[in-house]
Amino acid sequence: MDESQVQEGVDPKTACRLEILVNSYFSIIDGKKVYSKGRTVSWVVDSEKYALIDLHKDIAPYFTWASDQKANFWVVDSKQHMKCRLDTDNQLLELLRASQVVKLFMVVGAWEEGHVETNVADEDMSAATKVVEEEIKVEGFAWAEVPTYGETTAGPPMAEEEEKEHFMTFGCDPHGDEPAGVDEEWRYFKKVDDAARESKPTEKNAVEVNKRKRARPIPEFDTECVQDDETGARDDYFVPYTTHDLENPVIKEKDTFGDKEEFIQIMRTYAIKNSFETMVEHSDTTRYRARCAAEDCEWRVYAKKLHGGNTFMVVNLSSLDDHTCAGSATLTGHQASTSWISRRAKDIVQEDPTLSAKKLQKRLQTQYKIEMSYFKVWAGKKAAMNELHGTWEESFTMLWRFKAALEEACPGSIVDIDCKKINGQMHFSRMFVCIRACVDGFLAGCRPYLGVDSTHLTGKYNGQLAAATAIDGHNWMYPVAYGIFGKENNANWAWFMTNLKKAVGTPPGLTIHTNACKGLAYGVKKAFGDDAEHRECFRHLMANFRKKFKGENASTIGLRITKTFQLTI
């Protein structure tokens, strides 16, 4: 054995590796059922001074069990076959001295004084280690047979039999509402006649013991897995989800749902469609219990989470005939939660994103005949929009992905993102986008003219959306570039026009058409200088003209000027 693997205090010459395969088990500790998943643990021990009490101390940090349980160790050979039970220190020492790696199988079960006996005496231990399954005595229990088609490893559910004689702790589940699989270890064993318990490993009964069925060998795969796919498909505890009409659900006992959230949402719709309200009596991660909101009504529903997943199943559900309350033609908004409204509004806002919360409120109230507050509908619409399109904050984090994707798909495109550092955190400031294909189309097929202006953004975050637009041969508008920044000032317009010049250059006869914004005029002059003609919009000029010169002829004079082609009349 490599000396680097040997712990301090252990002689490398007498060191031996101990590997223990632990089977999964349940325990009741402090009144709670604890499940311990099986796995393999190993460590290095001294083969000359190691006892069973040391083995129990070393396994304790990895696994714990109840006071009425005991850990039993079995000797395992290289083929994963159980050979005999480990009961004495002499057996353990002889195993450690015989090999550098010793494999054991640990089973945790109920402990009864004098119940389990060994089948191999101390003096026969050496011979037993060389022979597989030599005179194995079945002591009380043996592994169940391999399941056949139509039967599960656990066998059919037998509620009455569980309550009477098979539970590890009698009476812990008298009503059958524990999660599936709890305290059902008995299913994986079969009883053996009492003669096997009382018999001694003598020469007279050796032949009789050998005729009995041997313990099953440890399988090569995970003992937690079902051995046969066909067998697992028939297991009563793993049932497919029940399909429900989300708008008009019909729920009955034994119906299953993907998780608790799905069950609650469908139950809300069920109550709304049947004109009654529910009141939750108890709700946690594994159980849900509710009743009709009317005090004297007998309607009840109870659901629980199945063992081994998130599936929820309806255990008990009163029929609609059990309602002793009068009901109501129009319900209050208690049943329509924000999440419930969000699910109903998702398809509506996807079809019409501009639909206001007020109109959405009227539409849902008419369809489901339930009163909803405006603020709850507004919050539900917001949640639906976030689910469809993401949040506003998430959109900012995706800008760099957009930049990388656009530059990869259309090389030569310009995407400039500018950020500011405020209180140690980076914040979005402005952005410029110009696609290379649009620039090529402008230079090849449009007149050298660009109209530049901006408009206000009215969403959650305010700002300016600027655009540079050309005119093609059909006199249609042709987009060239756009940008986003906070407000119209000299710095932002100079930054935008600098990027625009970088994108389109200075083609011959280029004319830039703007309004009378001073910041825009400053940006054109700073970026293009004398390389482009700058012209202002006549409508804005006339608006400024009418502010100073009043009269009936102010509008007509402007119209005549636009049609004049001579400097003098």
Structural class: alpha+beta
CATH class of the largest domain: Alpha Beta
Which overall shape is indicated by the principal axes computed on the Cα atoms? elongated
Average predicted local confidence, pLDDT: 76
CATH topology of the largest domain: Ubiquitin-like (UB roll)
How is the biggest beta sheet arranged? Answer: 7 strands, mixed
Under CATH, the homologous superfamily of the largest domain reads: Phosphatidylinositol 3-kinase Catalytic Subunit, Chain A, domain 1
Range of strand content: 15-25%
- Give the second-level CATH assignment, the architecture of the largest domain: Roll
Count of DSSP strands: 21
Total of helices? 18
Cα distance spanning the termini: 112 Å
> Ranges with pLDDT <50 over ≥5 residues?
114-174, 189-201, 206-238
For the CA atoms, what is the radius of gyration? 40 Å
Helix content: 25-40%
Structurally, the number of domains stands at 5
Instruction: Write out the strand line-up for the largest beta sheet, numbering strands in chain order.
Output: 15-16-19-18-17-20-21
